Amino acid sequence: MALIKSISGIRGTIGGKPGDTLSPLDVVRFTAAYGTWLAQQSSNKTVVIGRDGRISGALVERLVISILNALGLNVINLGLSTTPTVEMAVVFHKAAGGIILTASHNPKEWNALKLLNHKGEFISGAEGALILETAAKDDYNFVTVDKLGTYTEDTTALDKHIEAVINYPLVDAAAIKAANFSVIVDAINSSGAIAVPALLKALGVEAITVLNEAITGNFAHNPEPLPENLRELCNEVNKQKADIGIAVDPDVDRLCFVCEDGSLFGEEYTLVAVADYVLKHRKGNTVSNMSSTRALKDVTIKHGGEYTPSAVGEVNVVTKMKAVNAVIGGEGNGGIIVPDLHYGRDALIGIALFLTHLAHEKKSVKQLRNTYTNYFMSKNKIELEAGFDIKKIFTHIQKKYKNNPINTEDGLKIEFDTDWVHLRTSNTEPIIRIYAESNFETTADNIAKRIMQDIREAM
């Protein structure tokens, strides 16, 4: 069982003792802290909430609504929804903020409160720290009975989200319809079962098969869209001879594709392909976190733009995108951020832009994938003992590779010509993550092994 408090929200497993898990008391405490912070920001009393299809979603939803109302805040509930839909609905409703009830790619026993500001973006580190401080003190002020907040439901938010995607200037629904794609979707028993088919139909796609369509929250497989979890989708695409497979996570902010032969397009290349299309039509800069593939930098330079890495974490990517005026950005985990739609990872706009790109290129998914440089990533971690001195470890590594370009914005990223390795500590576990990338799989593995040995020497 676990409870993880971070600057962007709180997540944990359901069931167990308060303080050790995401118990009802913890949901109440952190919702009250967030609502208190919102009330201090302005006189705007409107809060938008929505949830994914998790088993615990309805239970957590009822608690959150009651506490927000008890603080005098007016709740607009989207019900079963997606993370990007809630983000956009905050802006649609000119709300003070929003809460997304989702643990994203975590297994079914997890849930979370993801906290948004009035722009529909994740709160900053400083804001998150204030909310955690309020929760630690239980410093709330509930209203009297004649000042309780109101409750309304919005059943149109997803339609508005899809309409915004369809009307986005670089989305070509006519070309997608003419391409007559056959699509298989892995909806992982959550919100994607509603959102993705609705989008595809609006884009003119008629041949749609949905796997794991029942919204039970009892996920058919581990919900993170990684290769080992997508075998059913890959097999079905191959079996049905479909043009493309689409997989999303439970809250529909991550996205990956399957080629027509059942092979994986690669979640690292979701952003690369979408950025390639966007940059062909809109010159500018790009951003991804520094644990993402170099292929985005290659595509950006090809189109005359400048690539900038950011620290890991969506809020950090967004901050960097604003700083460099990026026209497209995101994360290598399949997260697409299109800033003039909204500053949040959004699988729906990702699907629409990817299918437009595919239709315009008149290539198969596999042929499109083959137009991008093949990079291989080796992902590893080292567990640390209690009381470890991370500064000592990183100083040792930095000295050893002092002649190489090093970025210290988020741990250490060391460049080796076209290869790189990124070391960073986890926010939630006593580990160091080591990601290495190269044109050759064995090289990436060897770089990671060498760095892991360097770390052990410094411990």
TrEMBL record:
<protein>
    <submittedName>
        <fullName>Phosphoglucosamine mutase</fullName>
        <ecNumber>5.4.2.10</ecNumber>
    </submittedName>
</protein>
<keyword id="KW-0460">Magnesium</keyword>
<dbReference type="InterPro" id="IPR050060">
    <property type="entry name" value="Phosphoglucosamine_mutase"/>
</dbReference>
<dbReference type="InterPro" id="IPR024086">
    <property type="entry name" value="GlmM_arc-type"/>
</dbReference>
<dbReference type="InterPro" id="IPR005846">
    <property type="entry name" value="A-D-PHexomutase_a/b/a-III"/>
</dbReference>
<keyword id="KW-0413">Isomerase</keyword>
<dbReference type="Pfam" id="PF02878">
    <property type="entry name" value="PGM_PMM_I"/>
</dbReference>
<feature type="domain" description="Alpha-D-phosphohexomutase alpha/beta/alpha">
    <location>
        <begin position="269"/>
        <end position="374"/>
    </location>
</feature>
<dbReference type="InterPro" id="IPR005841">
    <property type="entry name" value="Alpha-D-phosphohexomutase_SF"/>
</dbReference>
<dbReference type="InterPro" id="IPR005843">
    <property type="entry name" value="A-D-PHexomutase_C"/>
</dbReference>
<comment type="similarity">
    <text>Belongs to the phosphohexose mutase family.</text>
</comment>
<dbReference type="InterPro" id="IPR005845">
    <property type="entry name" value="A-D-PHexomutase_a/b/a-II"/>
</dbReference>
<feature type="domain" description="Alpha-D-phosphohexomutase alpha/beta/alpha">
    <location>
        <begin position="8"/>
        <end position="139"/>
    </location>
</feature>
<dbReference type="GO" id="GO:0008966">
    <property type="term" value="F:phosphoglucosamine mutase activity"/>
</dbReference>
<dbReference type="InterPro" id="IPR016066">
    <property type="entry name" value="A-D-PHexomutase_CS"/>
</dbReference>
<feature type="domain" description="Alpha-D-phosphohexomutase C-terminal">
    <location>
        <begin position="397"/>
        <end position="452"/>
    </location>
</feature>
<keyword id="KW-0597">Phosphoprotein</keyword>
<dbReference type="InterPro" id="IPR005844">
    <property type="entry name" value="A-D-PHexomutase_a/b/a-I"/>
</dbReference>
<dbReference type="Pfam" id="PF02879">
    <property type="entry name" value="PGM_PMM_II"/>
</dbReference>
<dbReference type="Pfam" id="PF02880">
    <property type="entry name" value="PGM_PMM_III"/>
</dbReference>
<feature type="domain" description="Alpha-D-phosphohexomutase alpha/beta/alpha">
    <location>
        <begin position="161"/>
        <end position="262"/>
    </location>
</feature>
<dbReference type="InterPro" id="IPR016055">
    <property type="entry name" value="A-D-PHexomutase_a/b/a-I/II/III"/>
</dbReference>
<keyword id="KW-0479">Metal-binding</keyword>
<dbReference type="Pfam" id="PF00408">
    <property type="entry name" value="PGM_PMM_IV"/>
</dbReference>
<dbReference type="InterPro" id="IPR036900">
    <property type="entry name" value="A-D-PHexomutase_C_sf"/>
</dbReference>
